[in-house]
Amino acid sequence: MPSEELVAGGGYRHGQKQQQQQQLEIRQVWADNVEREFRLIRAAIERFPYVSMDTEFPGVIHRPTTHPAAMTPAHRYALLKSNVDALHLIQVGLAFAASPSSPPALAFQVNLREFDPRVHRHAPESVRLLAASGIDLAAHRARGVSARAFAALLMSSGLVCNPEVAWVTFHSAYDFAYLVKLLMGRKLPRSLPEFLKYVRVYFGPEVYDVKHMMRFCGGGQLFGGLERVAAALGVRRAAGRCHQAASDSVLTWDTFREMRRLYFAREGSLELCAGVLFGLELDDPKLLVS
């Protein structure tokens, strides 16, 4: 159960009346408060085991030589690996909910320190977009959490390697790739099946990619990016700004639960989407069996 500190801090919503009175707070996580914030996360997981996740990173520097639609999942993974291995994670957003139909009760934005655009490779247009969206990279370098410290806290938090936690994402191959790289402490596995095994080990069987779920929603009625899909479903951004990880994780969660209500009401229908990352679908799921 969340501690009194968490309730007093304004980050925990419960009950319809309180939700109407109090906007969800995004808790900013820096090096000077990361231990305290992870204590709150550890306290909250049992009560809020549904986690929506998003990341921000400095774009891509390796691009496909063929049209993405013509690429196989293995080719997409090879391209993803070349980018993730070469680049640094900037932000991780986590939103927590009590059930698949509940609004998010907590949201954390972990600000990482490693990326420096003066010395590290990046896509300039992506970094300009992040800066225009309010991400202060100088503050990240000065006050951010180290990737090593974040990985250690994540491993001991109860968030990963816990089959009781369900994860919700949007077009999340890169998001999971950055977290797998961080948790492994080394470059990504060489093959797609091996990578997906690590995703299963760290994040469990209940991983839902909203971009993949869209394929089962009324024959193409939903398409495009997160903002477009949310707008089509009548979902508004509840907190923060676009292109910041925690705000996007909250919007992802609210989009997921509205999509679930409209298109996956039948018992067991959502299970068809579990464990599949958009763009990295295996033709033979047996390849994931050890």
From TrEMBL:
It is found in: Cytoplasm; Nucleus. Its EC number is 3.1.13.4. GO terms for molecular function: metal ion binding; poly(A)-specific ribonuclease activity; RNA binding. It holds the Pfam family CAF1. Keywords: Cytoplasm, Exonuclease, Hydrolase, Metal-binding, Nuclease, Nucleus, RNA-binding, Transcription, Transcription regulation. Its cofactor is a divalent metal cation. InterPro entries: CNOT7/CNOT8/Pop2, RNase_CAF1, RNaseH-like_sf, RNaseH_sf. One of its GO terms (cellular component) is CCR4-NOT complex. It catalyses: Exonucleolytic cleavage of poly(A) to 5'-AMP. Its main location: cytoplasm. PANTHER family: CCR4-NOT TRANSCRIPTION COMPLEX SUBUNIT. Component of the CCR4-NOT complex, at least composed of CRR4 and CAF1 proteins. Belongs to the CAF1 family. Ubiquitous transcription factor required for a diverse set of processes. It is a component of the CCR4 complex involved in the control of gene expression. This is poly(A)-specific ribonuclease. The lineage of its organism: Eukaryota, Viridiplantae, Streptophyta, Embryophyta, Tracheophyta.
